């Protein structure tokens, strides 16, 4: 009854706010425009013919559509397919390593009576406060000794190391929130801890897993300095290195704007696509994982 | 749930891979970095022990303080914008209408592209002769000659870079706030409506206090990220003019790579990491108090 | 000039050599007995890995590699471009980890640093007696030498000169065949061209690019008798009245409005496009700008003169470009040396370098059919005769770094009112402390 009255009052308030609703709606549209406009302009700029792309002052919309910039990017040195394959391979490996390491670790930290586990947890989050740029040289020398330089596996390990604290944090929070009744039910049915993990915990934390995977992908796909240090053969370069090259690409160090735009567009597309497709899981994962 | 000694061991088994990984690929390089900080080493000449010399030098180094001050200034400006802006966006988009949801999705899109790519994109937009910002300002009649956004004036460069980073990451805070806001039980908000609370009162007396923990957490993450900022400065200004926009991590990078002063770079990283550690501890204590 | 630098360098190097003696990784210098005579073909089969910095004369390097690969399909060069700002760090990492390419192109001014650290292979006994080297670019050969030992040969050469827009000269009432021969004349001419109005300016000074400035403003100081870099520990940088005179000259140029406003943010990325825009009357730039300007602005009539100093008919030039060197740990030294022989061979000098209208790295090859058809290239080749390359072990930090004292000094001169004596003293102190480390 009280609730009914509350709802009626609420409705009255909402009706009065009708006009401001339109205003807020307009604000939303404006915000969306500001967010999307730079991306759209970049994609359009990548379709300009070379001369127009290098024009000063620039044009907003292309006067003619051309794939010049993409052609240059496609055939750049070892070829775009090579770089895309390297970036993709590294990103997928990073996702795999991250999940394989953090899911069981988070499970252990959330559910098992390990002595000193709070301390261990903080220890594992260590990497968050150190600038990883300074760790690159020692890691590079270590990798050189064990033969991991110029390999996608090596780069993926580097990326996983950077990404691990954040991923672990999300996974542990998410696993802590899994209702114990589900697990206890499985245990009474005779399931081992491994089976509990696989059949109960992981399905319940799918949003968090998707979140971790997506962030690992984005981080690895876009990472530049580590790739530069670790890779010394052009055939192992990743996409961000090529984008850096586009900045000094025209003869004697000028910026090839068209190729830069094409590179930006190609870098953006997978990230945005994956995000839009997995949106529901992902957003829920972030929202639940971090509130704790 | 699992209390036996056996379960302790099982827990450790689940934790072990991540632990070993972090020990090998984060802790060990970190120890090496500490070792490096007590030596002068250029990679191509043997390392020379210098004790605390590098640390002493840092405190006497003008550039160290310039970078530190600039990093603090950058952090102090961008953090309130991100938190307040993100929170306002969250309030705007936490309702469940279609438009709000679309806005939420759109604002998050820049988050999923890489920081490097975003910096390149804005490097283009802010380019004095080739970028669209100056073109738009000129077309609107607001400027008569191109504004030199990047690399000429530290304040203006900071403004431009801040704008680009806000565009990119504000969605992240927004989503976390939305999660926190939506986690507030309906009864509480409805109850405040019954009490005749206006919107502003609802926000300040009900929503904000109940989401304070998330706000403090997001602030912590944002501040750490800003103190460790590198990519955007590397790409957009390269520390120009005269190293005034060289953040602390950028200065670490300069010493570790082109200058080949790895020991000094390591010492700088240690100082930075300790600073962040102190700040983190303070912030976490504050958070713990607000939760009680 | 060069001999004045040699002594302090050698003293410093000798001291360091004594200290580094314990390193024990030095190759015995004479392997000539075991090394085969150099040819321009493969010494052994299999791919050769080569690094080169980006942001250089990519076109030229690609042509040279293609020429080698065509002749020697059994030992093709696999070229990787490294972002130039990261090159020094990457080479150091490579050497420290043993993961080095078989040979590499490197910006010549960084060579002394690596030679001093004994990280390049000593090639004296293999190439020291080559006749081609007698006429090879002296700027390159200076920096390729350390303590009388030889470590590399030129890969390509850039040289700086004064380009001037003959169309604008005519419009301003100046004789298009009489370029300025002193800084005073340069100023007078610039004033006249700027007076033409619009966005036409008489001169250009890149405001945010250390390398562009050492390339085009450094020679103005050299031509005025000054010395710029500190070669090694204890050496004095920025010596001579020429330093202050040139800074005064540039400051007044900017104040008189002879330089486009956008030049202030020029960080090198669009430097080579400025002259071709047709809006700049005179500009220090490099030989590479000939073809570029023609592509950009085919109808523009322009000429090339030497960069002048304070006194009439004084001139100087910066010899830049890349060297080919062999990093320590390379497994294919014989092949690398053969590549060097190839680059210096008559045929390659004419049919690859000269044909592409790039400078030949041997001064005795300047007289060839391609250059004869191109008077501008012959003009710019004259700069090789008055050219020099700075010799210092800390070039990047002192001069080429965007955050270094050289650029800072110039920016203060160009854009502030700071007392020039203070500006120079500050820069001197900074450069000296870098050289002393």
Commentary on this structure:
The complex is a heterotrimer of chains A (292), B (292) and C (437). In chain A, 76% of the residues lie in helices and 0% in strands. Chain A is mainly α and 292 residues long. Chain B is mainly α. Chain B folds into two domains: 1-28, no CATH class; 38-112 and 169-291, Orthogonal Bundle (MetI-like fold). Chain B has 13 helices and two strands. Chain B has helices spanning 5-37, 53-60, 62-93, 98-112, 115-125, 132-139, 154-182, 186-194, 199-210, 212-227, 231-236, 248-256, 262-291, and strands at residues 39-40, 48-49. A two-stranded antiparallel ribbon of chain B has the order 1-2. In chain B, β1 and β2 form a beta hairpin. Chain C is α/β, with parallel strands linked by helices and 437 residues long. Chain C has helices spanning 2-20, 58-71, 87-97, 111-116, 124-127, 138-143, 166-171, 183-194, 210-216, 218-223, 241-255, 289-296, 333-344, 346-354, 369-372, 375-381, 395-400, 405-415, 420-435, and strands spanning 48-53, 77-82, 103-107, 145-146, 149-150, 152-165, 282-286, 302-305, 307-308, 315-325, 387-388. Chain C has two domains: 2-158 and 320-388, Periplasmic binding protein-like II (D-Maltodextrin-Binding Protein, domain 2), CATH 3.40.190.10; 159-318 and 391-435, D-Maltodextrin-Binding Protein, domain 2, CATH 3.40.190.10. Classes of the chains: A mainly alpha (292), B mainly alpha (292), C alpha/beta (437). At the A-B interface, α1, α2, α5, α6 and α7 of A face α1, α3, α4, α5 and α6 of B.
Topology:
The complex is a heterotrimer of chains A (292), B (292) and C (437).
Chain A (H helix, E strand, L loop, with lengths): L1 H15 L1 H29 L3 H4 L14 H7 L5 H32 L5 H8 L7 H15 L5 H25 L3 H9 L4 H12 L1 H17 L2 H6 L8 H8 L10 H35 L1
Helix pairs in contact in A: 2-14, 4-14, 5-8, 5-11, 8-11, 8-14, 9-10, 11-14, 13-14
Chain B lengths: L4 H33 L1 E2 L7 E2 L3 H8 L1 H32 L4 H15 L2 H11 L6 H8 L14 H29 L3 H9 L4 H12 L1 H16 L3 H6 L11 H9 L5 H30 L1
Antiparallel strand pairs in B: 1-2
Helix pairs in contact in B: 1-13, 2-13, 3-4, 3-7, 3-10, 4-7, 5-7, 10-13, 12-13
Chain C lengths: L1 H19 L27 E6 L4 H14 L5 E6 L4 H11 L5 E5 L3 H6 L7 H4 L10 H6 L1 E2 L2 E2 L1 E14 H6 L11 H12 L15 H7 L1 H6 L17 H15 L26 E5 L2 H8 L5 E4 L1 E2 L6 E11 L7 H12 L1 H9 L14 H4 L2 H7 L5 E2 L6 H6 L4 H11 L4 H16 L2
Parallel strand pairs in C: 1-2, 1-3, 10-11
Antiparallel strand pairs in C: 3-10, 4-5, 6-7, 6-8, 6-10, 9-10
């Amino acid at each position: 009854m009280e609730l009914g009255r509350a709802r009626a009052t609420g409705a009255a308030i909402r009706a009065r706010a009708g006009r401001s609703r339109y205003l807020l709606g307009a604000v939303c549209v404006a915000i969306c425009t500001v967010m999307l406009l730079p991306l759209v302009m970049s994609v359009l700029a990548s379709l300009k013919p070379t001369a127009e792309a290098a024009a000063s002052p620039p044009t907003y919309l292309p006067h003619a559509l051309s794939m010049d910039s993409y052609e240059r990017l496609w055939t750049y040195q070892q070829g775009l397919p090579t770089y895309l394959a390297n970036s993709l391979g590294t990103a997928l490996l990073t996702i795999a390593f991250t999940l394989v390491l953090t899911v069981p670790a988070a499970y252990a930290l959330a559910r098992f009576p390990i002595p000193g586990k709070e301390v261990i947890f903080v220890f594992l989050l260590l990497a968050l406060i150190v600038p990883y740029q300074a760790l690159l040289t020692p890691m590079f020398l270590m990798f050189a000794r064990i033969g991991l330089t110029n390999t996608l596996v090596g780069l993926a390990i580097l990326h996983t190391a950077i990404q691990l604290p954040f991923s672990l944090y999300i996974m542990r929070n998410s696993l802590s929130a899994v209702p114990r009744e589900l697990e206890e039910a499985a245990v009474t049915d005779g399931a081992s801890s491994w089976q509990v993990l696989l059949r109960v915990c992981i399905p319940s934390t799918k949003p968090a897993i998707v979140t971790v995977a997506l962030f690992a992908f984005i981080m690895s796909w876009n990472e530049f300095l580590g790739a530069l240090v670790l890779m010394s053969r052009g055939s192992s370069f990743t996409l961000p290195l090529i984008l850096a090259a586009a900045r000094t690409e025209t003869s004697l160090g000028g910026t090839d704007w068209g190729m830069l735009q094409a590179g930006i567009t190609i870098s953006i597309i997978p990230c945005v696509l994956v995000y839009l497709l997995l949106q529901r899981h992902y957003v829920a994962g972030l929202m639940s994982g971090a509130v704790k | 749930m699992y209390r036996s000694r056996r379960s302790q061991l099982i827990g450790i088994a689940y934790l072990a891979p991540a632990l070993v990984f972090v020990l090998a690929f984060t802790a060990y390089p970190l120890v090496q970095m500490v070792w490096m900080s007590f030596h002068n080493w250029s990679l191509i000449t043997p390392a020379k022990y210098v004790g605390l010399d590098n640390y002493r030098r840092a405190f006497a180094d003008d550039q160290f303080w310039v970078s530190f001050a600039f990093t603090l200034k950058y952090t102090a400006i961008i953090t309130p914008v991100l938190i307040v802006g993100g929170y306002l966006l969250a309030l705007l988009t936490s309702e469940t209408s279609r438009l709000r949801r679309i806005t939420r999705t759109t604002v998050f899109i820049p988050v999923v592209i890489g920081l490097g790519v975003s910096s390149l994109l804005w490097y283009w937009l802010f380019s004095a002769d080739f970028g669209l910002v100056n073109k738009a300002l000129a077309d609107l009649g607001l400027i008569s000659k191109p504004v030199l956004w990047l690399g000429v004036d530290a304040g203006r460069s900071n403004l431009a870079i801040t704008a680009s980073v806000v565009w990119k990451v504000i969605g992240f805070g927004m989503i976390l706030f939305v999660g926190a806001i939506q986690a507030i039980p309906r009864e509480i908000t409805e109850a405040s409506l019954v009490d005749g609370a206006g919107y502003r009162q609802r926000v300040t007396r009900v929503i904000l206090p109940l989401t304070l923990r998330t706000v403090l957490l997001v602030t912590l993450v944002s501040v750490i990220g800003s103190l460790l900022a590198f990519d955007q400065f590397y790409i957009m200004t390269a520390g120009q003019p005269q190293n005034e926009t060289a953040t602390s991590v950028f200065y670490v990078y300069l010493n570790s790579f082109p200058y080949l002063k790895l020991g000094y770079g390591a010492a700088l990283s240690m100082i930075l990491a300790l600073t962040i550690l102190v700040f983190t501890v303070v912030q976490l204590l504050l958070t713990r108090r607000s939760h009680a | 000039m060069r001999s004045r630098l040699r002594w302090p360098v050698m003293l410093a190097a000798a001291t360091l050599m004594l200290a580094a003696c314990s390193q024990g990784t030095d190759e015995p210098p004479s392997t000539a007995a075991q090394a085969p005579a150099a040819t321009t073909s493969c010494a052994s089969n299999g791919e050769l890995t080569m690094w080169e910095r980006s942001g250089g004369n990519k076109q030229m390097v690609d042509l040279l590699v293609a020429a080698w690969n065509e002749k020697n399909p059994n030992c093709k060069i696999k070229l990787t471009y490294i972002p130039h700002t990261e090159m020094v760090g990457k080479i150091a990492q490579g050497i420290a980890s043993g993961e080095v390419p078989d040979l590499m192109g490197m910006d010549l001014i960084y060579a002394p640093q690596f030679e001093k650290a004994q990280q390049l292979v000593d090639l004296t006994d293999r190439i020291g007696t080559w006749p081609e080297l007698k006429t090879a670019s002296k700027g390159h050969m200076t920096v390729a030498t350390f303590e009388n030992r030889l470590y590399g040969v030129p890969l390509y050469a850039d040289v700086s000169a004064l380009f001037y827009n003959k169309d604008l000269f005519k419009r301003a009432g100046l004789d298009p065949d009489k370029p300025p021969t002193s800084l005073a004349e340069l100023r007078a001419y610039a004033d006249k061209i700027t007076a033409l109005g619009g966005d036409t300016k008489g001169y250009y000074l890149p405001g945010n690019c250390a390398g562009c400035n050492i390339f085009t403003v450094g020679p103005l100081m050299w031509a005025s008798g000054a010395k710029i870099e500190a070669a090694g520990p204890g050496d004095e940088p920025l010596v001579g009245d020429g330093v202050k005179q040139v800074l005064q000259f540039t400051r007044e140029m900017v104040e008189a409005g002879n330089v486009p406003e956008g030049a202030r943010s020029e960080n090198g990325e669009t430097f080579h496009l400025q002259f071709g825009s047709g809006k700049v009357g005179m500009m220090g730039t490099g030989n590479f700008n000939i073809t570029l300007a023609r592509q950009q602005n085919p109808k523009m009539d322009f000429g090339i003169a030497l960069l002048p100093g304070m006194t009439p008919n004084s001139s100087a030039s910066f010899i830049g470009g890349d060297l080919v060197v062999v990093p320590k740990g390379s497994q294919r030294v014989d092949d690398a040396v053969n590549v060097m022989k190839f680059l210096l061979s008559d045929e390659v000098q004419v049919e690859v370098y000269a044909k592409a209208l790039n400078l030949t790295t041997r001064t005795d090859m300047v007289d060839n059919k391609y250059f004869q058809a191109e008077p501008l290239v012959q003009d710019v080749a004259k700069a090789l005769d008055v050219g020099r390359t700075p010799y210092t072990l800390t070039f990047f930090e002192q001069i080429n770094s965007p955050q270094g004292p050289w650029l800072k000094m110039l920016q203060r001169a160009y854009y502030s009112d700071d007392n020039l004596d203070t500006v120079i003293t500050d820069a001197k102190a900074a450069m000296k402390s870098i050289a002393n480390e």
